[in-house]
From TrEMBL:
Domain spans labelled Aminotransferase class I/classII large: 32-372
GO biological process: biotin biosynthetic process
Tree of life domain: Bacteria
Keywords: Pyridoxal phosphate, Transferase
Cofactor(s) required for function per UniProt: pyridoxal 5'-phosphate
Keyword Phosphoprotein among UniProt keywords: no
Pfam family, one: Aminotran_1_2
Name this polypeptide is given: 8-amino-7-oxononanoate synthase
GO molecular function: 8-amino-7-oxononanoate synthase activity; pyridoxal phosphate binding
Gene3D superfamilies in the cross-refs: Aspartate Aminotransferase, domain 1 (3.90.1150.10), Type I PLP-dependent aspartate aminotransferase-like (Major domain) (3.40.640.10)
Length: 381
């Protein structure tokens, strides 16, 4: 290959660097304010013991094929039965990760005559699935129920004959705020549509027994929820909870389910234990709620910013390079904080995303915000 064959990529990377958007892999170090391991389960004794126990009883490390070949392991099926019962749904389907699950949902379930009405801030994986869907789609302003209703009504007036699919996150990953699920569920029912709720950052943290924020609306037939297993559950994978017929449709038509090697049976066994921990150890959620309350108070006291009220605290900075410098300054002092820049967030809204987990102690949270105030003041000089 000529040198010019790679030059195009070098130019594009240089362009990202000029905009302050270049990324590189940085090893985890210091106090954890960057992970989504909200309940501190990823390195917990119980999950480690569950994995070792599964190995001892002969559970395979790898699935060896797709679920439709020989990769359908009893651990997958046991997890799906237990998850459906735990979250109160008719059926569950286990995917390798939340990204794959969202792509499968949106590229497969909405039909060509339908419309997907999604919040402007939904995850990139949902956008990926929507772009592969045969259905039309429209973005609406964030957490605006009236905008969703107007979009559906405009579509109907223009001759839309299918069903609307309303797509939201219950707790938004970059802002830490909540969707108005009750009103959206009512709207979906009024229009004979579906409500798809990504519970990635609410699973394990909110709702009775950590069942998520959608627990408040139950699990009606027109509601589909996605519960990722790699955040508060401390493992990996994702569970789609839906009516049985929709799960069967995904098994038959979702290409990234049909043609992907199944998730590790060992990981399915680990997720089963994580669900038991949610039920057995409510004190983890209580302790996290206390840390979130402390973080909210310290954030307002030290830097004068209002908190999100959740375990995800965005610190809006605006400028890409400034966000990077502040994060680097905090990491140099032993706090693992990462900058979030476009295209993950909108232009001009670069930020620090501070994640509160059980992996830190209260005094560490207080010290973080004290140092953040100092670093931010230096940046303003």
């Amino acid at each position: 290959m000529s040198a010019g064959g790679l030059a195009v990529y070098e130019r594009k990377l240089a362009g990202l660097d000029r905009k302050g958007r270049s990324r590189s892999l940085v090893a985890a170090s210091g106090a954890d304010f960057a992970s989504n391991d909200y309940l501190g389960l990823a390195q917990s004794q119980r999950l480690g013991d569950a994995l070792r126990s599964a190995l001892d009883r002969g559970v395979a490390v790898g699935a060896g094929g797709s679920r439709l070949l020989r990769g359908n392991h009893p651990e997958h099926e046991a997890l799906e039965r237990e998850a459906a019962a735990y979250f109160g749904a008719a059926r569950a389907l286990y995917f390798a990760n939340g990204y794959a699950a969202n792509v499968a949902l949106f590229s497969t379930l909405p039909q060509h005559q339908d419309i997907i009405v999604h919040d402007a801030l939904i995850h990139a994986s949902a956008h990926e699935g929507i772009s592969a869907s045969r259905a039309a789609s429209i973005a609406t302003s964030h957490n605006d129920v009236n905008a969703v209703a107007d979009a559906i009504q405009s579509w109907r007036k223009a001759g839309g004959t299918g069903r609307p699919w309303i797509a939201v996150e219950s707790l938004y990953s970059m802002d830490g705020d909540r969707a108005p699920l009750g009103e959206l569920a009512e709207l979906a029912s009024q229009h004979d549509g579906f409500l798809v709720i990504d519970e990635a950052h609410a699973t394990g943290v909110f709702g009775k027994g950590g069942r998520g924020l959608a627990e408040q609306i139950g699990h009606p037939e027109n509601c589909i929820t996605l519960h990722t297993c790699g955040k508060a559950l401390g493992a990996s994978g994702a569970l789609v909870l839906a009516p049985a017929v929709l799960c069967d449709f995904l098994v038959n038509r979702a290409r990234n389910f049909i043609y992907s090697t199944a998730p590790s049976p060992l990981m399915a066994a680990t997720v089963r234990e994580a669900l038991r921990i949610l039920d057995d150890e409510p004190e983890r959620r209580d302790k996290l709620a206390g840390l979130v309350f402390l973080a909210n108070r310290e954030m307002e006291r030290t830097i004068g910013m209002r908190s999100s009220g959740s375990q995800i605290q965005p610190i809006l900075v605006g400028d890409n390079r400034r966000a990077v410098r502040i994060a680097e300054g905090l990491r140099a002092e032993g706090f693992d904080v990462r900058p979030i820049r476009p295209p993950t967030v909108a232009e001009g809204t670069a930020r620090l995303r501070i994640s509160i987990t059980l992996n830190v102690e209260p005094e560490t949270i207080s010290r973080l915000f004290e140092r953040l105030a100092v670093v931010m003041r230096k940046e303003q000089q």
